Amino acid sequence: MFTVKLDDGTIVKVKSKYNLGFISDADLFRHVKETLGRLTQNVDLKLFEKNVVDPIKLTIESHAYGKTAKEVVEQEIARQLGKTLENAVGDFHQKIFKYIKGWSVPSDGVDIINDAGTVFCEMKNKHNTMNSGSADKVFDKLHGVVIANPKATAYLILVVAKKSCDEPWLVAGRTLPPNKAKRLRKISIDRFYALATGDEMAFLKLCQVVGKVIDDVLSACPASKFKNTVLKELSARDPDLLRGLFMSSFSTYNGFGDFHVIK
Q1: In terms of Cα–Cα distance, which of 179, 171, 123, 178 is closest to 150?
Q2: Can you give the C-alpha Rg of the chain in angstroms?
């Protein structure tokens, strides 16, 4: 068991032990709680419909893919939450390093830096999320680092890479002198955790316990639990969920005062 003092001064007791070694149990708990706090935690009908629901899209999805109205509404809720979730996941991967000895997360500049000022990192969640323009910008930023500091190594960290790697980052048409090319690198997150912590299995160990930590946070801090009243509110407005969405989106359109779904 360990105790954690939260930002509001509350002290919670947690029965689990995570034993990652490179981060304390309390700091890992705190980090996961901070990540959950960045998610949308309450979704009601007002918020759901604020994002402009297209009932025709949901109808096509329901009929074409054999889904119930409830299933397509739940999927639409998940889609709306997706952007916030992606940002929170990015913060999870980046900001955990503020808890790891020898590393920090600057407020500007690069995403992660070591305390010695010799390793500078930019992080991307997936290898395919950068188009050529954004990749060039990151490349130029890291190139500037290795040019300005002959002792620095700059890394593009990929969380979901094509494969485990630690290699020079080669970009078509962007040749660098050999002494600089070897210091501008592309690295998968498992290799970066190994570099940052000295533990070859550090990322594996984190992946194995992260679900448990989330469950512990939700158990110890019920206010962090996700609440969703959309389906309940939709059903109360109209038992036919899709008809209710049509009426909500198109109530002022010609003839929709007498709208009904033909079955």
Answers
A1: 179
A2: 24
d(CA 159, CA 89): 10
Distance CA 49, CA 82 (A): 16
> What local confidence, expressed as pLDDT, does residue 17 receive?
94
Q: Cα dist. 73→43, 65, 76, 154, 169 in Å? A: 12, 13, 5, 44, 42
- pTM across the whole model: 0.89
**Which DSSP letter does residue 254 get?**
T
The token pair at 191 is 């290799």
DSSP bridge partners of 112: 121
Average per-residue pLDDT in the chain?
91
Q: With contact defined as beta carbons under 8 Å apart, do 14 and 29 qualify?
A: yes
Q: DSSP 3-state assignment of 262?
A: coil
Give strand pairing partners of 186. 156, 167
Q: For residue 187, list its beta bridge partners.
A: 157, 166
Of 121, 89, 104, nearest to 191 (Cα)? 121
